[in-house]
C-alpha cells in the first residue's frame, strides 16, 4: 500500500474513484510477491504493478468494470497459451489477483 | 472515517495492523482492518478474524468458514541495530537502508558515533549498549549486529540480544574472539541453546574483504535467516525460488 498511497490520494482528492488490484497468491515463480498492488483511477491512470507487465492490461479491464459498479472479483492467471497476445505469465508461474473498489 | 480513509492513513505510518478481505464465498469484498497498536477495528468482515490478527506474520489467504480470506500485514520495516560505529557499520547501514530497513547505530564513543562517520543511520545513539537498549527496543523485527571488536560492547550487546526476540544476532570477530565471548556469556547464565542463536563470525562466506563487501555478506545472511532460507546458491536449491503462498 505504501507504494501506491500517494497517487491514490491525489486521484481521490480530484474526486475520482479508485480500484485496487492485489496479488493474493502466487504459485511456482511469479514476478511480484503476494501483496503487490496496482491502483487504477476512473480516468485510467495507473500506478504500481501485479506482474512484470504481462497481465496488467487484462486487470485494468476488470478494474474499469468494478469502477463502473461491477462486483469485486478474483482473477487467476497462468502460463500463457500459444496465442501471441494471450494473457498469461511467460515465466510459467500462476497468480491470483483480487480486484475491488477502494471505498 | 471510511475504511479506505483509515487504510490510506495507515499506509503513511509504521503501525502494526492486519487487513482482512473476503475474496471468495459469502460476503466477497467485505473487509476488516484490525489496528493492533490501538485496539481499533474498522469494517464489516466476518466474525472470528480479529482474534487471529496478532498471530499473522505474512500476507496469505486463509480458509474461514465457507469463505476464503486474504490477510495482509502492515507494520514497520525490519530494523537493523549495529553496535560499534566503525567503517563496516556505515556500509551496513547504507546497504540495509537501500532495501528499506530502518537503521540504528550505537556507540558510547562520541567521537565515533557522528553523523559524518555514519550518515546512513536513521538514528545514532551515543550510549553504552545497556543504556542504548533502554531506548532502542529489540523486537522480532530487529536484527542486531555487533561490530565493536571490544568485549565491553560486544558482551552486553549479545546478552541483550539473546534476551530479546531479535530475528538475527550477529557478532564480528575471529573464532578465538567468539570462544572468549562464549565463555563470558555462559558465565552470565546463558545456555548453549541460547548461544546457538549467535551468528559469529557474522555473514555469509562470499569472500568479503572491504566494508561494503562485509556489509553485503552480513545483510544477506540476516535476510536468509529472516526468510528461513539457507543462503546457498539458487542453482543448487531444490525448492522454489519464491515462497509459495
Write up this protein.
The complex is a heterodimer of chains A (103) and B (245). In chain A, a hairpin with a 4-residue loop joins strand 2 and strand 3 (46-48). The longest helix of chain A is centred in the middle third of the chain and has 12 residues, at 56-67. Chain A has one domain (5-101). Chain A has helices at 5-13, 56-67; strands at 18-27, 37-41, 46-48, 73-77, 94-101. Chain A is 20% helix and 30% strand. Chain A is built from 2 helices and 5 strands, in the order αβββαββ. Chain A has a 5-stranded antiparallel beta sheet. Chain B is an alpha/beta fold and 245 residues long. Chain B folds into 2 domains: 3-74, no CATH class; 79-227, Rossmann fold, CATH 3.40.50. Chain B is 31% helix and 22% strand. Chain B has helices at 3-11, 87-98, 129-135, 151-163, 175-187, 192-195, 211-227; strands at residues 17-24, 31-35, 40-43, 60-64, 67-74, 79-83, 102-106, 123-125, 142-146, 168-171, 198-199. In chain B, the strands form 2 sheets. In chain B, strands 8-7-6-9-10-11 form a 6-stranded parallel beta sheet, with helices on both faces. Chain B has a 5-stranded antiparallel beta sheet with strand order 3-2-1-5-4, covered by helices on one side. In chain B, helix 4 links the parallel strand 9 (142-146) and strand 10 (168-171). In chain B, helix 2 (87-98) crosses helix 7. The mean pLDDT of chain B is 93. At the A-B interface, helix 1, strand 1 and strand 5 of A face helix 1, strand 1 and strand 5 of B.
Amino acid at each position: 500500500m505504501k507504494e501506491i498511497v500517494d497517487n491514490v490520494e491525489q486521484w481521490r482528492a480530484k474526486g475520482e474513484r479508485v480500484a485496487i488490484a492485489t496479488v493474493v497468491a502466487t504459485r511456482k515463480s511469479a514476478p511480484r510477491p503476494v501483496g503487490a498492488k496496482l491502483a487504477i483511477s476512473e480516468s485510467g491512470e495507473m500506478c504500481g504493478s501485479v506482474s512484470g507487465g504481462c497481465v496488467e492490461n487484462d486487470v485494468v479491464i476488470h478494474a474499469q468494470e468494478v469502477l463502473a459498479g461491477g462486483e469485486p472479483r478474483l482473477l487467476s492467471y497462468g502460463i500463457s497459451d500459444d496465442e501471441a497476445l494471450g494473457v498469461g505469465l511467460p515465466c510459467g508461474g500462476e497468480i491470483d489477483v483480487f480486484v475491488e473498489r477502494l471505498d | 472515517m471510511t475504511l479506505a480513509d483509515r487504510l490510506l492513513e495507515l499506509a503513511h505510518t509504521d503501525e502494526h495492523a492486519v487487513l482482512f478481505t473476503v475474496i471468495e464465498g459469502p460476503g466477497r469484498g467485505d473487509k476488516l482492518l484490525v489496528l493492533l497498536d490501538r485496539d481499533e477495528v474498522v469494517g464489516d468482515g466476518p466474525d472470528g478474524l480479529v482474534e487471529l490478527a496478532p498471530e499473522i506474520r505474512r500476507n496469505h489467504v486463509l480458509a474461514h468458514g465457507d469463505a476464503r480470506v486474504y490477510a495482509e500485514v502492515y507494520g514497520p520495516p525490519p530494523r537493523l541495530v549495529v553496535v560499534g560505529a566503525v567503517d563496516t557499520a556505515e556500509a551496513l547501514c547504507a546497504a540495509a537502508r537501500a532495501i528499506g530497513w530502518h537503521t540504528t547505530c550505537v556507540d558510547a564513543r562520541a567521537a565515533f558515533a557522528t553523523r559524518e562517520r555514519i550518515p546512513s543511520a536513521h538514528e545514532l545513539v551515543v550510549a553504552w549498549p545497556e543504556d542504548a537498549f533502554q531506548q532502542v527496543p529489540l523486537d522480532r523485527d530487529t536484527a542486531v549486529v555487533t561490530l565493536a571488536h571490544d568485549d565491553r560492547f560486544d558482551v552486553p550487546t549479545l546478552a541483550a540480544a539473546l534476551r530479546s526476540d531479535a530475528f538475527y544476532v550477529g557478532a564480528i570477530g575471529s573464532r578465538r574472539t567468539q570462544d572468549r565471548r562464549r565463555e563470558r556469556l555462559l558465565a552470565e547464565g546463558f545456555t548453549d541453546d541460547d548461544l546457538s542463536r549467535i551468528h559469529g563470525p557474522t555473514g555469509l562466506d562470499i569472500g568479503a574483504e572491504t566494508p561494503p563487501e562485509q556489509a553485503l555478506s552480513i545483510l544477506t545472511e540476516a535476510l536468509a535467516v529472516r526468510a528461513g532460507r539457507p543462503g546457498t546458491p539458487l542453482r543448487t536449491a531444490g525448492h522454489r525460488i519464491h515462497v509459495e503462498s
